[in-house]
Prior knowledge:
Organism: Sphingomonas floccifaciens
Number of strands: 12
Largest sheet: 6 strands, mixed
InterPro entries: TraW
Protein name: Type-F conjugative transfer system protein TraW
Amino acid sequence: MIRRAGLFGGTLGVALVASSSWPIVQGALAKDHGVMGQTWAIAEPDLLATIDTRLKTLQANGGIERMQTALREKTEERVRNPIPVAGIGAVRESRSWTFDPTIVLDQDIQDQKGRLVARAGQRVNPLSFVAMKTDFVFIDGRDDAQVDWALKRWTAQNAKIIFVAGSPFNRMGEKKRRFFFDQQGKLTSHFGIARVPAVVEPAGQVLKISEIEMSGAGA
């Protein structure tokens, strides 16, 4: 009881002191100390108003139209002339190997009626279900010799000719044949192709991949 009374008494004492001194403190805070230094008015321009003004200026002097034209031309140039796949050179010596396309499923596969086709963790070879009907022929589209070599050996029905460099669009107009491009080198990287010309063709349940030295292939 003594401890509680002392605690309460101390608390009450502090409260009384604070209460009695409040007018003094309040008066001290209200005192005018004059100007302590130079002051400036707060001036923060409206961001949206600034953007709107700049857009109107660009529109008035034709800046927006020029930007749109430049972007359109840059995009068209990149589509017509893709960046060459990095690290791909010309074949110096022929070599070939097999590639197993088998994958391990990370989830169950069901058909449209919900029936289980394959379980997660199961190994599946796509060639067991889907036949590969065309070869993939990878070439440097800038090299006339490689382009002519591929066109002589494969028709549009039995192969897809895929560029790792050069413009498929320019060649299509020249050769009257459809060409493709290995965007970001995803296919050559997947198959382990480092040099061209190279061919990927079905061989039973695996794929045969060949990097072909043209002088030894009757080019």
